[in-house]
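Fill-in record for HAD family hydrolase.
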Amino acid sequence: MAALGWLTPRRRSATARSVLAGEASAEAARKSSQELEELAHEAAPDAAAEEPEFPVLGDDKAAAFFDLDNTVMQGASLFHFGRGLYKRKFFETRDLARFAWQQAWFRLAGSEDPEHMQDARDSALSIVKGHRVSELMSIGEEIYDEYMAERIWPGTRALAQAHLDAGQKVWLVTAAPVEIATVIARRLGLTGALGTVAESVEGVYTGKLVGEPLHGPAKAEAVRALAAAEGLDLGRCAAYSDSHNDIPMLSLVGHPYAINPDAKLRKHARASDWRLRDYRTARKAAKVGIPAAAGVGAVAGGTAAAIALHRRRR
């Protein structure tokens, strides 16, 4: 304080207090900065403790499998497809009212009732019977633009794109008609689609299914068969769904994710330490750990057609 010797006692005291305040402020700033660094370090685990980056770049033994309704798209794809068919006079107003009731049922119940699913399936098959597969595919392109494009969850689309950017194949796996799934997969730039197949003879729908709807355990079998054909290691693959009905499919892979999960899937995912993400409320139930991105479109194929509503969850 020798440099302050020329000041009067009162002025010296005021100046000293200012110096002291400045030093104290600087010390507090330095201390708070250190504390913030320590907190940040605690919030972000050591690199060694972090899980490996996922999806793994260039892992050609890995792929991703995405459920469609309420996972990739808000609501039931068949309902939106049905709206488009109704607009094109494929069926009557009373049918649309029934489909709307089914949609409301699935939204409220949050589960797939076998009786409702059977009714939806029969309705869909009766509506497309006698129509050409090519006609439904062409109409599907128009309906996607009219009703579906704006209902794609950006977050889920980003997850799919992350796998594509890593050089991995990405498939839709849904109980929806494979034609609908094909259109959506192509528009999103995904690799392809697995879906329910309706019988056709010489390109015309017969009103029958080939086998059963691709639902529940059937999805898991389809994924298992595709993985074998593609030479994939399921332990390195990922699967995404909102429905407890897809637990068999999710359990097949090494990286299961619950997206917009129903109550049963949320409970199971937490018990199994699966990752969750909920885009319905714009809040994450848990970090998924995959970078954001966006996608655009090409490719996939099949056979089937429909309209109906319900949540049948793919």
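KEY FINDING: Residues 9-43 form the longest helix (35 residues).
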